[in-house]
Amino acid sequence: MPILTMTLQTAPRLEIPSFVDFLNALWSLFPSAFTLFLVIALAVALRHVLEGSSAASTGHRMRNQLILLAVSGFGLVLVVLLLPIGDNLRGQILSLIGIVLSAGIALSSTTFLGNMLAGIMLRAVRSFRMGDFIEVGGHFGRVSDRGLFHTEIQTEERNLTTLPNMFLVTNPVNTVRTSGTIISATVSLGYDVPRTLVEQLLLEAAERADLRDAFVMTVELKDFSVTYRLAGLLTEVKSLITARSRLRCEMLDALHRGDVEIVSPTFMNQRPLTPEQRFIPKPTHLHSAGRGRGASTPEEILFDKAEEAEEAENLQETVADLSDRIVVLKVELKEAPDDAKPDLETQVLELERERERLASRVAKMKHDGQGDV
């Protein structure tokens, strides 16, 4: 019996935390939890504000991504600093975050960081903009979107192709100039057709195709034929696809009107033919299948998203110009005499209404474009 009593008296006591201690522990976590909530709320609100005000500036997508990335990183560091832990442990956690961040940057430097820096470089160089025709690495289309890590083009099949920005930096990018581009087509004819006649007919075809400063070049003298190249300046580059097709059609029609036979020099036919037989289609009274007034052109169907992206960027620039004019007028309003203030106030009000209308239009275009996957 004494032994049992001694054992009970010397046994260690189990301390059960009280409810007050539990509340104190929760309260110590309140600053970091509240900070985390504020950071998340700030990021969501900032994203909403940036997307809402994106109509007033170009390149908003890249800017938004950079701002949100910086806010998220700063919030993470702030939460760690407010955790109820010792200084040594806090320093170890910050060191761990730095190591993980450094390792991630090192491992993904060829992709993530590389594409980000390439996107910034493309914006600085300004080699192309929204709606431009570009050709890079066998890909051809109109630019429909530009992001921090990628560039999207819409191809001739109306499909969307996403190209990493590193791909555009490491490969030559051909941009069709908005002031005009040279389009061309080639045709091979026999040696029995006079060169001067061919040049005359091809130049007539270029004129009918609405090309400026057209010229004909003799490209190659083959064993059985001569290759001619017709080229000219197309000023309306948005109709590039249609213009190329129309140029070939006009070349075909012009050569047929000039009684020039377009067949392969090795043409064979099992029918007995006389030397006077010509392979030229007979003229008909049917007109070519043209589009009626107001009908859509092929480019409007093929590059619809690129057209909307170009229009949105142009509207954003207009909104930015209106904002600058409003600021100037408000400064003039403060310094203007009383009799001139009503006119200035009317101008400011009209410009603000126009800016809001265009900004709403851009926001609607972007909202509708987000649903096009």
Notes on the structure:
This protein is an alpha+beta fold. The chain has four domains: 21-107; 127-175, Roll (SH3 type barrels), CATH 2.30.30; 181-266, Alpha-Beta Plaits (2-Layer Sandwich), CATH 3.30.70.380; 303-370. It is 56% helix and 14% strand. It has eleven helices and eight strands. It has helices at residues 2-10, 19-52, 60-81, 87-107, 109-125, 165-170, 195-208, 240-257, 298-302, 304-335, 341-370, and strands at residues 133-136, 139-146, 150-154, 160-164, 174-175, 181-189, 212-221, 226-234. A five-stranded antiparallel β-sheet has the order 4-3-2-1-5. A three-stranded antiparallel β-sheet has the order 6-8-7, with helices on one face. α7 packs across α8 (240-257) and α10 (304-335) runs antiparallel to α11 (341-370). The chain starts with a helix and ends with a helix. Residues 1-9 have low confidence and may be disordered.
Assembly state of the chains shown: single chain
- Biggest sheet details: 5 strands, antiparallel
Amount of helix: 55-70%
- Give the SSE string: HHHHHEEEEHEEHEEHHHH
Instruction: Give the terminus-to-terminus CA distance.
Output: 83 Å
Mass-distribution shape: elongated
Q: In order across it, which strands form the biggest sheet?
A: 4-3-2-1-5
Q: Which spans have pLDDT < 50 for at least 5 consecutive residues? A: 1-9
Number of helices: 11
Query: Total domains, how many?
Result: 4
Strand tally: 8
The helix/strand class is: alpha+beta
For the residues shown, what is the average pLDDT?
A: 77
Q: In angstroms, what is the radius of gyration? A: 35 Å
The proportion of strand residues reads 5-15%
